[in-house]
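User: Please predict the structure of the protein below. I'd like the answer in structure-token form so I can feed it into my own downstream comparison script.

Assistant: Understood. Taking the following sequence of 111 residues as input:
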Amino acid sequence: QFRHSFARMMVYHDEGNTDSARGFLLSWQTGNEMQLLRLAVDPLHQNKGIGSQLMEALLKESQELLTLEVRESNKKALKFYEKFGFQKVATRQHYYSDGENAILMETCTQF
């Protein structure tokens, strides 16, 4: 996922300390659509705004449409993405290897 020319990675470090990452996100940009593939924050550093800062940076980079899939059971993530304007647009049945459904979400970043 990282080796493609359309892959983008953002890493959050503590100011002045690039040796340890506190969070990251991975996305793919194809044309005017960007897909968020991964967003993670170190559990010891959650609820400090790191995920929000990464998401805000991604939204600024996005050309028009930003999409993602999230586990149907991940209520915390669903609420987080809704805070940034994402809306549920579809359910992907049995998307994950354990059979759980994925919720497809999207937001338009250019109006």
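That's the full token string. The first strand starts at residue 7 and ends at 14.
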